[in-house]
Specification:
This protein is of the alpha/beta class. About 30% of the residues lie in helices and about 25% in strands. The relative contact order is 0.15. This is Alcohol dehydrogenase.
């Protein structure tokens, strides 16, 4: 089969490792496994970080890619409930374990060190494949798994979002943030967003956001406080100074859920703002099997569709990565796998 292979580990800050497009051995299904012929895959920021040496547990050679959808092509022994020809999406959360609060020590995310979805075929445990939602295209299906799972755990499991609550999501446009907006809006929350792009704010409002503010304006925090009334829940992938702004915007007894830190560490955090407001600040990432099922059920029930920003052929994956790093996209960047 054809696949992109990461062969080099590099030190952080020294550049970006090349991906090699080459012929590799097609995987065979073992006990409890299936092989899926992939139709589509999708990019995540994790893929870029791995190439830059910014992610733990990198092993080479291995095939990147966490998100994918396709057709079951082979079934191993001891597999039930799945048949050849089934259309499936893949849960990239591998080996979470039994504790819903945090993953086991051997937990991994599909795609480095476990061979991922930048390939024509993938071998995966049968418990990690689920029926593709019928209302989704192949491109939309591939855009859903990692971002949808992360957003669901942040908004529903951790954030416990409720109808009528106010949710603030800074930096709208990325895959997880956009999916979190769709989830919170579908559950009846009033969602407010921020972006450096008025166009992205307008797109977010078409997806269900109640309003938004351009954070390039000096008084954006004040503006957002006025129009939103403050947050019952903030879902943050940015960190840095933005986390302090979210603490300022937080209502008494509210929650902040963090799953990223694109702006880096938080400096000079004023602790009284946290304890006098009785805030709960939680970290989260990925999710377990039951949360993946809950996320799929929510998307099926509300007929939600992930936003696909652009579609590239697999052969142009490095160009797609450059687009992701440029940051102009809204939603997910998807790869079409050659058949």
């Amino acid at each position: 089969m054809k696949a992109f292979v990461l062969k080099d580990k590099i030190k952080p800050g020294t550049g970006t490792a090349k991906l090699y497009y080459e012929e590799v051995e097609t995987p065979k299904a073992g006990a409890g496994e299936v092989v899926v012929r992939l139709k589509t895959a999708a990019l995540n920021r994790r893929d870029v970080f791995i190439r830059q040496g910014l992610y733990p547990g990198i092993r080479v050679p291995s095939i990147p890619g966490s998100d994918g959808a396709g057709v079951v092509a082979e079934i191993g022994t001891d597999v039930t409930g799945v048949e050849i020809g089934d259309e499936v999406v893949i849960n990239p959360s591998i080996g979470w374990g039994e504790n819903p609060d945090y993953p086991d020590a051997n937990f991994s995310v599909l795609g480095v060190p476990i061979n991922g979805t930048y390939a024509q075929y993938i071998k995966i445990p049968v418990e990690n494949v689920f029926p593709k939602p019928k209302h989704l295209t192949w491109e939309e299906a591939a855009a859903l798994p990692l971002g949808g799972l992360t957003a669901y755990r942040a908004a529903v499991t951790k954030g416990k979002v409720k109808a009528g609550e106010t949710v603030i999501i800074p930096g709208i446009g990325g895959g997880v943030a956009t999916l979190a907006l769709q989830i919170a809006s579908a559950l009846g929350a009033h969602v407010y967003v921020t972006s450096s792009s008025d166009e992205k704010i307008n797109k977010a409002m078409k997806l269900g956001a109640t309003g938004g503010v351009n954070y390039r304006q000096d008084d954006w925090v004040k503006q957002l406080s006025i129009i939103s009334g403050g947050a019952d829940l903030a879902i943050d992938s940015i960190g840095g100074e933005t986390l302090k702004d979210l603490i300022h915007l937080a209502k008494l007894g509210s929650k902040i859920v963090s799953f990223g830190a694109t702006l880096g560490p938080v400096n000079h955090l004023l602790m009284p703002r946290i304890f006098f407001k009785q805030l709960t600040i939680m970290g989260t990432t990925m999710g377990n099997r039951n949360e993946f099922i809950g996320m799929l059920n929510l998307f099926n029930e509300h007929k939600l569709k992930p936003v696909v920003s652009e579609v590239y052929p697999l052969e142009k994956v490095e160009e797609a990565h450059e687009q992701m790093e440029a940051g102009g996209h809204f939603g997910k960047i998807v790869l079409e796998i050659p058949q």
